[in-house]
């Protein structure tokens, strides 16, 4: 029998449709070149400032290190020169002593030979010559040692700076040494001494009520005085306005003294029987109440209260009539 026909192949599945393409990206925003340039300039200024500051700090550090190195080198050179001077002096002294010893030994040997070969007079002359040579050599050695031990000449003194020309607030002119005016305390003390006996503005000067004007017309503050002051400057003094003294009020008028009320009249005393004894010693002196009633004037023409006088001793009473 014929084989069965092979089954027909299944149809291939249809391909899936392709996905739609993605949308194009949005266009980039426009670049602000002016802002970028401004930021770049600012960054460059910051970088330049930092580099400048670092360069200044490095230069300052190098200057300090250079000054320290120069000072150390100068100190080392001074110590080295001193050491060489001392060594040279010691060597010169040793050489002089050695030469003197050799010369003395040689002269002594020659003297001994001369003494042995000649008379005593020749030996004495040789000995004298040897002693003279030794003394001369010792003197030369001492002189050489003294010259070698002499210190080096001192450096020349610093140049004297020109003084400060000062004109005070009352028109007086002074010439102050710059060394005394280099500090504000020194200048202030000189001005205080100049106005020590000035009665009107002396106390204001002592309290610092003034300005110091430089040659260019600017006020020099105490905080920058030591930085800006220079020799041969002309300094002018200007006082601050002096406040006027307040007028004193006149003293109040004294209050009137209170009037003492009049005392009541005393009751009359009864007359004693018999004749009244006369009292010697002049007219009677009125009392204070009577003087007050009379207006403060006594019978003798004086003013004020009665004058208190010592009463004389009363004589014995006269006999009754």
Short recap of the structure:
Helix content is 45%, strand content 6%.
State the main characteristics.
4-stranded mixed beta sheet, mainly alpha, disordered C terminus, Ubiquitin-like (UB roll), 7 helices
Shape call: flat
Assembly annotation: single chain
Give the strand content: 5-15%
Largest sheet report: 4 strands, mixed
Q: Give the class from helix and strand content and strand pairing.
A: mainly alpha
H and E order: HHEEHHHEHEH
Average per-residue pLDDT, rounded, comes to 77
Task: Give a count of the beta strands, DSSP E runs of length 2 or more.
Answer: 4
From the N-terminal CA to the C-terminal CA, the straight-line distance is 225 Å
How would you characterize this protein structure?
With 321 residues, this protein is mainly alpha-helical. Among the domains are: 39-149, no CATH class; 164-239, Phosphatidylinositol 3-kinase Catalytic Subunit, Chain A, domain 1 (Ubiquitin-like (UB roll), Roll), CATH 3.10.20.90. It has 7 helices and 4 strands. It has helices at residues 33-117, 120-149, 178-181, 184-194, 202-206, 225-228, 288-293; strands at residues 164-167, 173-176, 210-213, 234-239. The chain has a 4-stranded mixed beta sheet. Helix 1 (33-117) runs antiparallel to helix 2 (120-149). The protein starts with 32 loop residues before the first helix and ends in a 28-residue tail after the last helix. The model is unreliable at 272-282, 296-312 and 314-321 (pLDDT under 50).
Task: Compile the SSE list and pairings.
Blueprint: H1 33-117, H2 120-149, E1 164-167, E2 173-176, H3 178-181, H4 184-194, H5 202-206, E3 210-213, H6 225-228, E4 234-239, H7 288-293
Parallel strand pairs: 1-4
Antiparallel strand pairs: 1-2, 3-4
Helix pairs in contact: 1-2
